[in-house]
């Protein structure tokens, strides 16, 4: 909803405790997974749904691989690898090393434990499960109670347009290590969301756009019909967290892409990019407060804090601040 | 060819050295892999083709798994696990253990090293390679020069008819551990062989039917058009080695199946089963020589020796004896 309608009566929440707040987090991989985990540490699982980008998904070595879903899942289960930001703790690499030895593609580093998820998911999909059902099955076995929802059960591959033409996302992201320069992110048409995502969006009080890449993590989610319209039109508070701090991405190619696509590389530019879709923009204390100089942002509510999440306590702390700030707005 | 035509002029080979002998081995898994390895230790690789049963193949956990092809491959590469008869030396089980932990199917024991082959093969098949091409690729990387040929590039799934109906082969063989009792082995219709197998059969001097299960390893190969006809009609020597010794199978369900299908459980019964298709029958020294009492076998040439292959030397020794005996028949 437009920021200017924030004080409308219909935005006031009758509930006044955080315990009752219903939240949907839109998340990509690393940064999204961290903030999602922070929120999951606070809210009862029935009040939180995490809608995850599946535009990065691809078929590889016969398997259906869903990097962002798995990163969020490993973070929620507390079995993520904090050193890399992706993959599992205590991972080993015996199979993929052998794949390389026998001339198979080993550029996508699939660990032995991680492979178990891809194999099990591929098995469940082959049996006729939807991706949503397969994700629920695996989450159950990792003890995750929070609802983890793929943005769609249909394939929705993100493509990168560059001077070489169109590259499948993982070819550009992992194999080519963010090369060549991005001209445009190309998202698929006619992808529909699931009934589970639609229901979560309908009943939510707050949508939290995680500090994920706006172009290849958040846009792919918003591009799935009718998620963008539901985020824009339903009377909910929409809070976005900047993935850019002091002109750099905390992780990943967001800053590089902004430069290549002719944007200013700043958190302000991220806020401008989200535009009317968001009501509140959370940005880092390391950034200067230039927002009020941007005419288009004059009604945007901003919240400045330490947004770097070094450990699980940091995640919880950031999530708590954002939720408390949102509650204040609701109860104004 | 019928045994009675063995002394025809057209069976006489002009070549007199083993070095020139062209051999095709028809092989299933364990026993077939051992004898194939024995022959491969003797013949130059360009004179040997091993045609392998792919009736056991199945799609599992998203992957195309070819148990017999891999067993033969691991044996030829000298990286087989002699303790189990299948799988790799120095194998580990990290991935499949995790698959079980997250509620995936772990009844088919896929080791971490073994998985690399299934992943690489699935990748190559997805790229458009035939199974023959994918097998060649992997063999090249394991340093195998001998031609290892799947019986067909088409799926040709063996089914087991039992009181429960039709079971896919691996469900019966591995998951159910040879239960329930076999009423009949059901082989697919209209499966064609490859140009590589057809060429190998056309140019071979000797076809060696390995001591594999006649019903679920050898019959599936013979069932592929036009392999049975080529084995039967072309003027070549066909030698079969009994998988049954003193009423028992060295490994696997062959003896159990013979009993369930109402056959006598003996090497004689195997010879009778192969019938006119074979010229020479090799059976173990532990068996008594009952062959001449069987009217239908009165023209069959037999060769009795120690057929148990405990190590690579035994494999080579048995292969050498069979090839020497065949050369004697050729040069008679």
Task: Write structural notes for this entry.
2 copies of one chain form a homodimer. Chain A has 332 residues and is an alpha/beta fold. Chain A has one domain: 3-Layer(aba) Sandwich (Rossmann fold), CATH 3.40.50.10680. Chain A is 37% helix and 16% strand. Chain A has 12 helices and 14 strands. Chain A has a 7-stranded parallel sheet with strand order 5-2-1-9-10-13-14, with helices on both faces. A 3-stranded antiparallel sheet of chain A has the order 7-6-8. In chain A, helix 1 (30-40) links the parallel strand 1 (23-27) and strand 2. In chain A, helix 1 (30-40) crosses helix 12. The radius of gyration of chain A is 19 Å and the shape is globular. Chain A binds chain B through residues 59-64, 92, 94-99, 101-105, 112-113, 115-120, 122-126, 137-138, 140-142, and chain B through 59-64, 92, 94-99, 101-105, 112-113, 115-120, 122-126, 137-138, 140-142.
Question: What is the fold's blueprint, element by element?
Answer:
The structure is a homodimer of 332-residue chains.
Chain A: E1 23-27, H1 30-40, E2 48-52, E3 58-60, E4 63-65, H2 67-77, H3 94-101, H4 112-126, H5 131-141, E5 147-150, E6 159-162, E7 165-168, H6 169-175, E8 184-186, H7 195-203, E9 206-209, H8 214-222, H9 227-233, E10 237-241, E11 244-245, E12 248-249, H10 254-260, H11 267-274, E13 280-284, E14 301-305, H12 312-331
Parallel strand pairs in A: 1-2, 1-9, 2-5, 9-10, 10-13, 13-14
Antiparallel strand pairs in A: 3-4, 6-7, 6-8, 11-12
Helix pairs in contact in A: 1-2, 1-12, 4-5
